[in-house]
Specification:
The structure is a homohexamer.
Chain A lengths: L13 H19 L3 H11 L3 H21 L6
Helix pairs in contact in A: 1-3
Chain lengths: 76, 76, 76, 76, 76, 76
């Protein structure tokens, strides 16, 4: 993957930071399985599996820790 | 999801911070599975599964770390 | 749950901090499954499951990180 | 459990800190399952299960983060 | 493994930092299972398993926390 | 285990720090299962299990966070 997709961790709002955390989480999957067709096939299965959804939320939470710290928690 | 749901990580009390951590955890799930009908169907199953409940509590704990740091742990 | 159960992360001793971490972990479960009767039914099952006990200990460890940082690690 | 088992997170050496992290991890289990007879029964099973051993090591690693930070990483 | 593969955690951009986090995650696997033939055999299996992909993304997220902190979050 | 195996978290290079993180991860297992014969028996099984390898890499990542912080990320 030679495309540029991440140039900064700084976001305007906490919500944009949370959405960046989601992007980071998905990129982590995509670097391991770059075949989009496979990812599409897997999606419907795990999106109906409560355990898998919780695990996905956990990865987002870990990445959100990083993004929030980078933004000094968007404190004024 | 274009609605605004997260404008600040700052809360008045630790308990409100804990409840924000729960919101973050649920949003992490919702971004992955936006279909509310599916989420409602999954809920009764995993809410009776001890392992799933512990996993949910873990995601909350990770998000609470972020919120607590943002609030400088509500120290006076 | 409108009751007030968390007003501060500050504790007198590390042990009281560890016990607060346990409270946080249990509250994380309770917010997801508020029905105490269900929780009571689940308890004997997972309390005899080594994997579930380790997972519970992990959530406590994560919450203890937060409480310990809040208390500046109870350094004199 | 009203006994006093944790009065400080400060240790003389990193190794003593690692051993304190093990104590914290075991206490996390014990607060959830206080019956020592049950714990003894579970022990031989999970001590031969690679996945359970890795999970135990993970809890120790998380608690070691806390203890190491408390001790300022035992830097001179 | 006596080869030198990690001389610094500093990277020019967040994306290069994310890719270093991937390298760290893979090295963690490789130190445990150094036999490349085995790793190659395992790859197609877990690259089609949603749970395994999420777990891989989680390890990357944890390593990215370290790399991002090392780089002071690439703040200007 | 009364032998001295950990006297400092400081290492010359990030790679030596990563290898110390591996040592910490293995010690976490060994304190739980001190019988080397059992560990040797388990090794071939989990070293061929992708999920177990990812879990091992995760524990290393957590311990590497600690070691990297201790070394101030080997910044010059």
């Amino acid at each position: 993957m030679s495309d540029v997709w991440l140039t900064t961790l700084i976001t305007d709002t906490p919500q944009a930071g949370f959405e960046l955390a989601i992007t980071l989480s998905r990129r982590g999957v995509k670097y391991t399985q770059p075949d989009v067709a496979v990812l599409k096939r897997l999606r419907p299965v795990y999106a109906e599996d409560a355990e898998a959804l919780t695990a996905a939320s956990q990865v987002i939470a870990i990445n959100f820790q990083t993004v929030a710290a980078a933004n000094n928690y968007w404190r004024k």
